[in-house]
Amino acid sequence: MNSTLPPLEILLTVDVEFSIHGAFTLPDATPLGEENVLCPDASGREQGLGRLLDILAEHRLIATFFCETLQTTWFGPEPMGRIVQKIHTAGHDAQLHLHPCWAFFHHPDWRERLRHERPNDNCHGRTIQELTRWIRAGREQFRQWGVPQPVALRAGGLRVDRQLYRVMADLSMPLASHVGIGIFMPEEPELRQANGLHRIDGVLEVPVMSYHARLPRPTRPWRALTLTGTSWWEMRALLDQARRTPHAPVVVLIHPRDLAGPYPDHTANRLHQSRLERLCRLIATHPDHYQAVPLGTGLERWLSASPIPSRTLSPPWWTQLMRILEMRPR
User: Fold this and answer.
1) Which residue intervals of 1-147 are DSSP H helices?
2) Is 165 left (phi over 0), alpha (psi -120 to 50) or beta?
3) How far apart (Å, rounded) are the C-alpha atoms in residues 93 and 149?
4) Which of 37, 38, 116, 314 falls 20 to 30 Å from 52 in CA-CA distance?
5) Is residue 263 situated within a structural domain?
6) 3 within a domain of the structure (yes/no)
């Protein structure tokens, strides 16, 4: 390993969003708000966001939280505002997240519309007017919450096309983390990036890391580096591989609810909590090798960085087997 290389930058990115909770498919269902993020167990302890913030604080690491704003259509600004304030007070980086399905609630007759119309949660295939309106509204919501204006955006479900980058450039929003080909493969070839740093229509894209893992499905080898879908052994192997040559940041995708069991009990998910604790411990105890970097606070440095091409990384087969064994029902 080349010891002269700087520490590998790791972006711990957290998507903070409420849940439709069957409202579009079940007759009497309504969306689930703060509980989907906080995940309180029977004793009232937060196994979601609270536990996540505790683990980060224990290891003195800073993460980037992509906070969804279109859900204010249903909930109003207060519930997510309380969460964003909690994140900001803890010293973390808050950026913008958009799930367009929430815009369906703009229609007062939304339940009647469901009989002949399907809500769309894609940021790709949208008009310039829609994207412009949603981004502007999201930035205004951040202003009303009294937190720094977002400089980065992540599309819900990582569903993106080049139209979104063009709108971001027009609105002077310079950073994106939309791409994750292990979750969604964009139509445009130039967006099919597994990792790296890429300039797309005037916006710097920092993809969620995707990697080759042929177990269990060799015909669909791409996987995204997520807390729920990547074993600790795969994580460790990928970080070791990423350090061996001049490298782009490694972006990890997390949701607060990943740390908790199913609604409504929200018991602790020991497997996912252990993965996060191990990852944070590795970063904190090896500062010469790894550094947790929030996306928004290094704006000028990020924008002055040279593009870095995507590389194909693949963890050893036995680490993939460990993932399969961990996920087997017990």
Assistant:
1) 35-38, 49-58, 72-75, 78-89, 110-113, 128-145
2) alpha
3) 11
4) 314
5) yes
6) no
What pLDDT is attached to residue 330?
52
And the tokens for 144?
């009303």
Contact 87, 60 (CB under 8 A): no
* Neighbouring residues of 323: CB distance < 8 A, sequence distance ≥ 6: 213, 215, 229, 230, 231, 233, 234
Domain carrying residue 68? 8-25+32-326
Which one, of 217, 174, 246, lies nearest residue 324 by Cα? 217
Tens digits of residue pLDDT in 131-187: 999 999 999 999 999 999 999 999 999 999 999 999 999 999 999 999 999 999 999
| Residues comprising the chain, all counted | 330
Pairwise CA distance, residues 302 & 197, whole Å: 9
CB-based contact 91:160 (threshold 8 Å): no
In a domain, 43, yes or no: yes
Rounded to whole angstroms, how far apart are CA atoms 147 and 170?
23
